[in-house]
């Protein structure tokens, strides 16, 4: 259901994306964990289709970054305050 890479990125598999509460709960857990570790903010390199999900939870767009997997594609760079 979840894949990740060495940069700390996580992605819900396409098969399980319809489980809306899973994504919300995973995000809430990440925010809680970051807060517990003393982080002030989280940076999110979002899939363009997931940007509304993060914006609805308080993230703000701070720019764009090149995709690490699709040449020429730009991803929204978002940030959320967790402190």
3D structure, described in words:
By secondary structure, the chain is of the alpha+beta class. It has one domain. 27% of the residues lie in helices and 31% in strands. It has helices spanning 20-36, 51-55, and strands spanning 2-4, 10-12, 41-45, 60-66, 74-81. The strands form two sheets. A three-stranded antiparallel sheet has the order 3-5-4. It has a two-stranded antiparallel sheet with strand order 1-2. The longest helix has 17 residues, at 20-36. The radius of gyration is 13 Å and the shape is globular. It starts with a strand and ends with a strand.
List keywords for this structure.
single chain; 83 residues; alpha+beta; 3-stranded antiparallel sheet; 27% helix; 31% strand
Radius of gyration: 13 Å
Unreliably modeled segments: 1-6
Distance between the termini: 28 Å
Arithmetic mean of pLDDT: 84
Sketch the topology as an H/E string, one letter per element.
EEHEHEE
Strand order of the largest sheet: 3-5-4
Query: How many strand elements?
Result: 5
Q: How many domain regions?
A: 1
Helical percentage: 25-40%
**Strand-residue proportion:** 25-35%
Oligomer: single chain
**Major β-sheet annotation:** 3 strands, antiparallel
Shape: globular
Based on secondary structure, the structural category is alpha+beta
DSSP summary: helix tally: 2
């Amino acid at each position: 259901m979840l894949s990740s890479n060495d940069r700390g990125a996580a992605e819900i598999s396409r098969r399980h994306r319809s489980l809306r509460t899973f994504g919300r709960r995973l995000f809430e857990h990440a925010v809680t964990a970051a807060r517990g570790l003393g982080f002030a903010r989280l940076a999110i390199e979002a899939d363009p289709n997931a940007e509304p999900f993060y914006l609805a939870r308080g993230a703000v767009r701070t720019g764009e970054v090149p995709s690490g997997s699709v040449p020429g594609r730009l991803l929204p760079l978002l940030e959320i305050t967790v402190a």
